[in-house]
Each structure stands twice: as C-alpha cells, then as structure tokens.
C-alpha cells in the first residue's frame, strides 16, 4: 500500500504541488482582503471622528389655519462609525451601559444612534387683561401655550409636538453612468418635523459582527 502511495505521489507530484500552492494563495488573498477591509474601516472611523455632522434644510408643506403653507425643516446627517463588539465596550462606555440597562445583549445589537436637539420659538400673541390677572393663549401645529398671571403667581401650561424621521443610506463605492455597486460608506439622515427644532449632536454606530 505504501509503495502504491509513493508511486502515485511521484507520478502526480506536480499536480499536488500546484493544488497546494493554489490553496495557499487563496488563503493569502483572503487574509490580505480582510486586512485591507480592516484598514478601510479604521480609516473611515478616523475621518468620521474628525468631522462634524452636516446640517441642511428641506421644504415641507403643512396646513396652517386650513391653508397649505411651505415651511423649512431642519435635517442632519453623518457617516457611520463601525466598531467591533470589543471596541464598542471600550470606546462607548455610556452607550454600553444604556444597552445593559435596557436588558439587551450587545451581540444582538445592530446599531446605536445618539441624537440631541434644541427647540426654541418666539411667540407673539395678544394678552387678555382682567382686574386681577393677565392671560394669553397661543396655538400652532407645533406648540400650545397658555398662561395666566396675577400679583402672586404665574401659571403656565405648554405642550410641544415633534417627530424625527431616520433614514439609513448606503453610499455607492463605484458609479458608472446609471450603474452603481459596492458600498463606500453608510450614513444616517434625520429630519425633524418641527421647524423650530435644530440638531446639536448626532452619531451613528454600526456593530461589526
């Protein structure tokens, strides 16, 4: 049996060598490809960390007092960070604690986003005076405010509405005419439906499995 195996090896050694080299080259290319992808990921993270999120405006039509009105809404976008689970635990301790407080498993988390907003609005409305109080009421599609003041106290009530729309968008790596392929980056776009709301902070993190 040993003689037969040696005979086969002698006869087909060149084919076996070529097959072995092919396997080695395949794994080498796989390793190089993985290392290049890791370099691109970390380079992209550095670029995102050293850049500010972008603010922009979009037009929207709503009804105000029964009439269609065009308003400017604030939006913001930023490219995503890509962290491994261990990197996320190391660099995003606050987010990690939040995930734990929600009783979620980090290995099942796909992405995390943090958004901070600021809302301010100047209101001008008629006042209603009586002998002892001064009151006002104001309402629009985004805020409702009413207050009454006398010589001792001021009572104020308000409610505000807002909603955020989030769109995660893939940026193609290559484009030719009307074709596009590959993914260069992932970014998140957030739109506030309240025109008085602006964005003060935005980030978006994808967890690499």
Rounded to the nearest angstrom, the radius of gyration is 30 Å
Biggest sheet strand line-up: 1-2-10-9
Shape assignment:
elongated
Main pleated sheet: 4 strands, antiparallel
N-end to C-end Cα span: 48 Å
The portion of residues forming beta strands comes to over 45%
> How many structural units, i.e. domains?
2
Poorly predicted regions: none
Classify the helix fraction into a percent range. 25-40%
Mean pLDDT: 85
Based on DSSP secondary structure assignment, what is the total number of beta strands?
A: 11
Structural class: alpha+beta
* Secondary-structure element series: HEEEHHEEEEEEEE
Walkthrough of the structure:
The chain is an alpha+beta fold. The strands form 3 sheets. Strands 1-2-10-9 form a 4-stranded antiparallel beta sheet, with no helix packed on it. The chain is elongated and about 120 Å long. It is 31% helix and 47% strand. The protein folds into 2 domains: 2-121 and 162-208, no CATH class; 127-158, no CATH class. A hairpin with a 4-residue loop joins strand 7 (143-149) and strand 8. It contains 3 helices and 11 strands.
Can you describe this structure in just a few lines?
By secondary structure, the protein is an alpha+beta fold. The protein has three helices and eleven strands, in the order αβββααββββββββ. The chain is elongated.
Fill in the keyword field for this structure.
47% strand; 3 helices; 209 residues; alpha+beta; 2 domains
Task: Indicate the topology.
Layout: H1 2-49, E1 54-64, E2 67-79, E3 81-84, H2 85-91, H3 93-101, E4 111-119, E5 127-129, E6 134-139, E7 143-149, E8 154-160, E9 164-176, E10 179-192, E11 197-208
Parallel strand pairs: 3-11
Antiparallel strand pairs: 1-2, 2-10, 4-11, 5-6, 6-7, 7-8, 9-10
